[in-house]
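F.,

This is the one I mentioned.
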């Protein structure tokens, strides 16, 4: 499966003190928080639970040399571990700090969609800016206002408050849509590719998280999959596109909501 295209994150320094700094981990900045978040997301996608320097650099939007320098600082601060061949893992403290950033980001994204009314394809860039400035008190109020949601608008899990990650789904709970069996009824649970154009395409097809879908004919030679979302006409999709949508078996008589998508 090809690497998922993820929007780049900002690396502008800020004077805000993050969870890592409050834990005595060293200099805090927006840059540090973005690196921690990138490493966490890439590690979650990797079967080995690690992130490579090249992938980290691509997500953050810097050269591999710049990423290597920052990773050394994270290691020195006790936030990450790095192997000689380039694989990077977060320490428990680094993971807790990354989850805090990710929680802020995803709650802000949901607020911007549900309350402000922005399109789900537009909220990533706004959340990138706001996630570093929002206070814990305001974040908790937004979380409460939204009903303590488990996922953001794209189906990404929102880590629980504090150091725990109890809201993170078990690995393997969702499978790529392109790997579902013919005739299966599934529910879209998560959109992995959050490029703006891709999200607009998904919105047009009606395949947002929570949508029930029946899988039709799969043609490996042509690389296509037929499917029918509930209440919509049948459509065909490239298997390479279907791999970017995650799904789970539909439960009879259950209306999937934002609280129980995953």
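My design for it:
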């Amino acid at each position: 499966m090809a690497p998922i295209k993820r929007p780049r994150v900002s690396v502008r320094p800020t004077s805000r003190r993050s969870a890592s700094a409050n834990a005595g981990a060293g200099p805090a900045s927006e840059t540090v928080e973005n690196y921690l978040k990138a490493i966490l997301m890439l590690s979650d996608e990797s079967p080995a639970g690690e992130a490579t320097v090249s992938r980290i650099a691509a997500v953050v939007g810097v050269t591999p040399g710049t990423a290597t320098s920052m990773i050394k600082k994270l290691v020195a601060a006790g936030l990450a571990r790095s192997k000689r061949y380039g694989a990077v893992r977060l320490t428990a403290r680094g993971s807790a700090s990354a989850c805090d950033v990710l929680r802020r980001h995803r709650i802000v994204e949901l607020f911007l969609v549900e309350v402000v009314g922005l399109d789900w394809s537009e909220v990533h860039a706004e959340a990138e800016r706001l996630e570093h400035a929002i206070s814990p008190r305001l974040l908790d109020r937004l979380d409460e206002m939204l009903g303590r949601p488990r996922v953001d608008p794209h189906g990404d899990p929102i880590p629980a408050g504090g150091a725990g990650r109890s809201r993170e789904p078990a690995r393997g709970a969702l499978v790529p849509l392109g790997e579902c069996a013919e005739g299966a009824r599934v529910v879209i649970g998560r959109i992995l590719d959050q490029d703006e154009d891709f999200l607009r395409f998904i919105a047009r097809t009606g395949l947002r998280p929570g949508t029930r879908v029946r899988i039709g004919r799969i043609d490996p030679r042509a690389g296509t999959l037929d499917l029918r979302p509930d209440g919509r006409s049948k459509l065909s999709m490239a298997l390479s596109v279907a791999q970017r949508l995650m799904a789970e078996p539909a439960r009879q008589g259950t209306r999937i909501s934002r609280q129980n998508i995953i």
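The chain has nine helices and nine strands.

Talk soon.
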